[in-house]
Amino acid sequence: MDGPANVTTAPRTVEEIFKDFRNRRTAIVRALTSDVEEFSNLCDPDKDNLCLYGLSNGTWEVTLPAEEVPTELPEPALGINFARDGMNRKDWLSLVAVHSDSWLLSVAFYYAARLNRNDRKRLFGMINDLPTVYEVVSGGPRQTKDRSSVDSGSKSKITKQSSDGQLENMSRGAGHEGYGEDDGEHSETICGYCNGIYNADEFWICCDVCERWYHGKCVKITPAKADSIKQYKCPSCSSSKKPRQ
């Protein structure tokens, strides 16, 4: 077996390790969302113990675990296929997602073992800015980012393309003062509706309640309509506020 976790050159810097983490995470998210039918079919309970690997090249694979002992990298959860038919599908996918989050962190910090304390802290901060696989798959609440340097007042964050083609990050408030977040921070943002990855050419809007980002087209909000919104609530947060019948 060629070992799904093998890499040609181990990442060493914070940026390299984060890129490796991001690629593996993106692959697993794809397996559990857009590629879920293919993933489910591969998890045949009649087969031996299978693992879900997110690879550093951005692809995913369901296969047997590495045979060498000790393994080159930490291994993901073993036997994910056995529970496929014995659980509610959503619960099964959420369970795989939780184990995948644990595995992704273990791989990242296996590489980060030789980093100093400040670099490890910076790496974790970069990782923590992304929603977990579980949050994406289950639709659970996303951990909000620390905006200590930003006005703590409630404002709708709107990302849109300006007339000169430049991306503007605006807050709903006096003067439309910007948050000062560059495109790099948003480049790993995932749409809370379709799980699509951020694209600077598209209009996005952020929910003031859960702070998830959405394609404007997914939640039927246009730039013109957004200009008239004082506080935006996504469909999930709007429905959760409705009184029970």
Q: How would you sum up this structure, described in words?
A:
This protein is an alpha+beta fold. It is 33% helix and 10% strand. Strand 3 and strand 4 (167-171) form a beta hairpin.
Please supply descriptive tags for the structure shown above.
alpha+beta; four-stranded antiparallel sheet; 6 strands; transcription cis-regulatory region binding; zinc ion binding; 245 residues; globular; two-stranded antiparallel sheet; 10% strand; disordered C terminus
- Contiguous low-pLDDT stretches (5 residues minimum) are 143-183, 241-245
Report mean pLDDT, rounded to a whole number: 79
C-alpha geometry: globular
**Oligomeric state, counting identical vs distinct chains:** single chain
Strand arrangement within the widest β-sheet reads 4-3-5-6
> What's the helix count?
8
% residues in beta strands: 5-15%
| Ends apart, CA distance between termini | 56 Å
Q: How much helical structure, as a percent, in the residues?
A: 25-40%
| H-E order | HHEEHHHEEHEEHH
Radius of gyration: 20 Å
Count the E strands: 6
The structure class reads alpha+beta
What is the makeup of the main sheet?
A: 4 strands, antiparallel
InterPro entries: Alfin, Alfin_N, PHD_AL_plant, Zinc_finger_PHD-type_CS, Znf_FYVE_PHD, Znf_PHD, Znf_PHD-finger, Znf_RING/FYVE/PHD
Organism: Rhynchospora breviuscula
GO biological process, one term: chromatin organization
GO molecular function: histone binding; transcription cis-regulatory region binding; transcription coregulator activity; zinc ion binding
